[in-house]
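Recap from last week: sequence in, structure out.
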Amino acid sequence: MDVIRSVNEDKSVHGCLMLRPLPAGLDEHAACEALRPEKDVDCITSGSLARVFTGKGAGYPPCTAQACVEILDHYHCGLDGRKVVVVGRSLVIGKPVAMLLLARNATVTICHTHTRNLAEECQKADVLIVAAGKAGAVDGKCVSQGQVVIDVGIHVSVDGTMCGDVDFSSVEPLAGAVTPVPGGVGTVTSTVLVGHVIEAAAKAAGIEPKA
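Predicted structure tokens:
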């Protein structure tokens, strides 16, 4: 906790990324809450999360959740009025990305392990964001022709290769676009993190970043 207090008070530090889980014996919740939201560049505090849901306050959205939206923006995939299905409901990706999409006037459905007829729900989407936390959770049976598919997952398969939550080989022929793993969302996530730190530094210097 002394280290976090030091980070909070150190004007030369503009962002803090806390790698979790913390070592045994440390109170992870207390450690996260001790960090000032304005230095929380990956949304680990309640204050930052509140901003994602309310649009008010300090802090930043989770980098991976924002990366999904950045990818859609980069490829001019309009969100206003579009139906987006998010597979996954964690506070790290699923719920925050749903809030970011709602703020852009998308019509959002969140699916999870108790969702009935998951494939049917996924097929209804214009944009499908998969953050299920399970390798190959979504395959070609869940995808409709021309959908945009964002694969947030990252895993190491039994043969040592990296894969995502989407079964790329069965989805790619159907999708209008699908992010690869590796080289997809993760790469953009790193860029978003750098952007958050730069924005935090600018705000600390009294410079309001351009929208």
